[in-house]
C-alpha cells in the first residue's frame, strides 16, 4: 500500500511539473513586452528635417542662426529646397534638410533657427478655411520612411497631430524634444533566448509651440515678411523607450529549475531520499569503456612484480598470524607464476 501511494504521488508530481513546463512555454509564445523608459542627457541635438507645406504659394524670405551668445548670422536659406507642388494634396511644399546641431554649453554653438516667410494670403486662406498658414512637419534626421515600423510610427504621430502651424501675422516659437522607441522585431532570436535584442530604433520629435502677436514694422524684419517662426531645442534630454520581454528561454530554465527543486524537496520530505550513486553516469560510462583493458603478467616490469610479491607475502603472513592453530611456514612462498595480475584503468 505504501509503495502504491508513493508511485501515485510521484506520477502526480511528474504530471504537475509537465503542466507547469507547458504553461511556461505558452507564456513564451504569447509574451507581450513591457516598456521601460530612460532619459539620456546629451550635449548636442541634431536639427530635425522640416517639411513646410501650404495651399498658397509662399516664399522663405530669410533664415538666420542665433547662437548661445545671442549673436545672429544669416545663411541657412541654403538648406531650404525649391518649392514644389503636390498634385494629390494640392499644396506647395519646401523641405529643410541640414546637418546642423544645437549645442548646450558652447558659446558659439547654435541656439535657435529663425525663419521669415511671405505667404499668398488669398490662396492660403481659401485652402485653410480662412486662416493663412504653413504646416510644419518635423522629421528626425535618421528617419527611414521605407521601413514598415517607421511608417507605422509616422502614421501614429500624424494622428496625434505632429503638424505645427505657422500662422500669418503671428510669431510661432517652436521647441522640440527628441524621443527614441526601441522595438523588438518579430521572432528575434536574441530576445527570445534572453540576451540583448536586435532593437529597431525609431526616432520621433515632439513639439510645443507658443504664439504671440506679430509686429508688422520691426526695425530688423526682412522686407516682405508676413509670418515668422523659430525652432529651438526644448531640452537636451533624449527620452528612450525600449520593449522588454517578460518571458525568455533563460527565464524558463530558471523557473523550471526552481519548480523542480520544490517538487523534489516535497517528495523527499514525504518519502525520504533514496541512496545516491557516488559514481554518476559519466563515471559509469567511462568505466564500462575500459572494462576490457588489462595487462598480462609477463608484460609487467619485473621490479614492480618483485615489490608486489614481497608486499603480498607480508600481508599473507600477517593474516596467518591472526588465525588460531595456524603458523606461517617460513619456507612457503608465493608462486607468482600461477597468478594473472589484471590492472584496470579507471
From TrEMBL:
Sorted alphabetically, the keyword list is: Membrane, Transmembrane, Transmembrane helix
- Chain ranges passing through the membrane: 7-26
Domain of life of the source: Eukaryota
What protein name applies here?
Answer: Transmembrane protein
Amino acid at each position: 500500500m505504501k509503495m502504491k501511494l508513493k508511485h501515485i504521488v510521484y506520477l502526480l508530481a511528474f504530471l504537475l511539473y509537465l503542466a507547469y513546463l507547458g504553461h511556461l512555454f505558452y507564456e513564451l509564445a504569447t509574451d507581450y513586452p513591457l516598456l521601460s523608459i530612460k532619459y539620456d542627457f546629451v550635449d548636442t541635438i541634431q536639427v530635425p528635417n522640416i517639411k513646410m507645406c501650404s495651399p498658397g504659394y509662399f516664399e522663405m524670405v530669410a533664415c538666420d542662426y542665433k547662437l548661445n551668445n545671442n549673436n545672429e548670422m544669416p545663411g541657412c536659406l541654403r538648406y531650404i529646397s525649391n518649392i514644389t507642388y503636390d498634385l494629390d494634396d494640392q499644396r506647395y511644399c519646401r523641405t529643410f534638410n541640414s546637418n546642423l546641431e544645437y549645442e548646450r554649453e558652447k558659446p558659439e554653438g547654435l541656439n535657435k533657427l529663425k525663419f521669415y516667410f511671405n505667404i499668398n494670403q488669398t490662396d492660403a486662406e481659401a485652402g485653410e478655411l480662412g486662416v493663412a498658414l504653413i504646416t510644419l512637419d518635423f522629421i528626425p534626421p535618421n528617419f527611414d520612411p521605407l521601413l514598415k515600423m517607421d511608417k507605422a510610427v509616422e502614421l501614429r504621430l500624424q494622428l496625434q497631430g505632429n503638424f505645427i502651424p505657422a500662422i500669418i501675422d503671428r510669431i510661432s516659437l517652436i521647441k522640440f524634444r527628441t524621443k527614441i522607441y526601441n522595438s523588438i522585431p518579430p521572432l528575434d532570436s536574441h530576445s527570445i533566448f534572453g540576451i540583448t535584442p536586435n532593437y529597431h530604433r525609431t526616432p520621433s520629435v515632439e513639439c510645443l509651440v507658443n504664439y504671440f502677436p506679430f509686429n508688422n514694422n520691426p526695425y530688423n524684419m526682412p522686407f516682405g515678411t508676413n509670418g515668422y517662426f523659430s525652432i529651438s531645442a526644448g531640452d537636451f534630454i533624449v527620452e528612450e523607450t525600449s520593449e522588454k520581454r517578460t518571458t525568455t528561454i533563460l527565464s524558463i530554465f530558471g523557473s523550471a529549475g526552481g519548480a523542480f527543486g520544490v517538487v523534489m524537496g516535497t517528495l523527499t520530505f514525504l518519502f525520504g531520499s533514496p541512496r545516491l550513486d557516488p559514481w554518476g553516469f559519466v563515471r559509469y560510462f567511462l568505466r564500462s569503456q575500459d572494462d576490457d583493458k588489462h595487462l598480462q603478467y609477463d608484460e609487467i616490469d619485473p621490479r614492480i612484480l618483485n615489490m608486489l610479491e614481497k608486499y603480498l607475502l607480508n600481508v599473507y603472513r600477517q593474516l596467518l598470524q591472526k588465525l588460531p592453530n595456524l603458523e606461517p611456514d617460513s619456507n612457503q612462498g608465493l608462486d607468482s607464476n600461477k597468478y594473472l595480475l589484471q590492472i584496470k584503468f579507471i
